[in-house]
Amino acid sequence: MAPGQYLDSIGPNEERYYATELDAASTANFSATVVPQPGAAVDDLEALHTRIAYGTDGICQSTTEMFGQQEGATPLTSGVSRLPAQSGTGVCDQAGRYWLVVERKAAKGSDAARWPMELTFHVEHPLKKGVTPAQSEPEYGAGGRPRSAWARCRSPGPTVTRATRTSSPCTARATSTWR
Hints:
1 helix, mainly beta, 38% strand
């Protein structure tokens, strides 16, 4: 499976396997969304289970999302990611064939139809050596302390929208008048 968006279907209590080749350093994101017929019978414990596996024993990550109600089926999404460890020594830090697995867990008496399923798969390659990611400017300064009031007032903020009200605590007076 190459990165992209795919359509498939899945039946009750069925597992679907999708193979992909991953290098040792990239992050992989995988999600599955099932779209049952509106109002289809479901149990509150029915679930969509996704996992990324390596070889026969290595589960990198797994997630289970449940309907959590018996009012009828609605679309349900479950997603997982493979995040290689910085040490590179984990089972899921190796280059090779990985399995993206989707399982629909259905209760007795639930909708027996196959459900349409959308799959998304994306790979994020690590930054090249010497490249520094862009820095964000958080609301809080160093050490989690809020920036000073003066620094907050100097930064561009919302404009005044009414003569008698300001939307910034730094605005000392209104800049427009009512006529």
